[in-house]
Amino acid sequence: MTVKIPDTLRTVSIYISDVPLQARSVGHLSNFEIIAYVPGEESSIVPLNTNNSIRLKRQIQTTVGDISIDPNTLNEFSIQSSGTQGECNEQSVSGGDTPDDRTFNIGKSNTKVVFTYGTYTVKDKIDVYYMNQPVFSTGCVGASGVTTISLDGTDTRLQVIVSPNCAGETGTAWYYTIECLTTLICEDNVCYCGVYRRQSSQTSAPSSNGCGGQGSPWNFIVQPLGSAWEFTSACDAHDRCYSTCNKLRSECDNNFLSDMMSSCTTHWNDDPDRLRACQWWAGKFYGRVHASGASFFAAAQEEDCDCTSKRRRRSVTNNNAMLTT
Length: 325
Prior knowledge:
Layout: E1 21-23, E2 32-36, E3 44-47, E4 91-95, E5 100-105, E6 111-118, E7 125-130, E8 133-137, E9 144-151, E10 157-163, E11 174-180, E12 184-187, E13 190-193, E14 201-202, H1 219-228, H2 232-242, H3 249-268, H4 272-292, H5 294-304, E15 305-306, E16 315-318, E17 321-324
Parallel strand pairs: 4-16
Antiparallel strand pairs: 1-2, 2-3, 4-11, 5-10, 6-9, 6-11, 7-8, 7-10, 12-13, 14-15, 16-17
Helix pairs in contact: 2-3, 3-4
């Protein structure tokens, strides 16, 4: 017999695609677990411990609300999972008259790949399978094209089968490539493109909104204080720095402190008491931003920066020869 948590637990963050819930034994809440599949990431296993709280047990960066629950009265539940990007095993394969059957471990589930192919003039057929199900077929054609394939389950593998000379001809040539859609990754104090850390491209001009974070409940305090101590220009410069692609977050924060200290000296140098007070508030502003500004930095980078379509390092296979470009 399986004991299940109420269906309300199935309604979770839009960033989690599948949440199967069941107990590993009957009647013990501590034996329930949630398997959360995060797009582009490895799955996260979230057990419910003996304190009836949600906790995460994964070796990836994850944020989970530690919420006490009563499964009999529960009517709301949420979870957030995030982690480092899985590897993307990009490939390019070409061949001729010999049939070809390969299985590639993309390194990610719940993601998308771009599949590009060419069969030239002699007709060939290329079939792609995911989780043993056909997801794309060129048909018997002599043509080229590109399509997007979704890996929307838990498996990270794609199988590609090439049937050359499907129309009874000979002397064919064909190729296909598998490339991952590049995602902006924000970690280690900077945002970058893909596992090879390519630089992102500026898609819009850096913007600013004075002191305080967008939507912050503390703006009613922060904004007047920033204005009173002449920090607004420093806050604007800090906002623009956060919105500038490929900037180090620490550089933005350090410049923010320096700008506020300079403003204190400029405006209050003749008043030692107010100068000290201004410098104290500058330290407070910096400390708060440095401690909790990571989410604002990532949001600004994601809004104004994008990853280019430049091809990353890939493996190129031709029959039995392996080249790297």
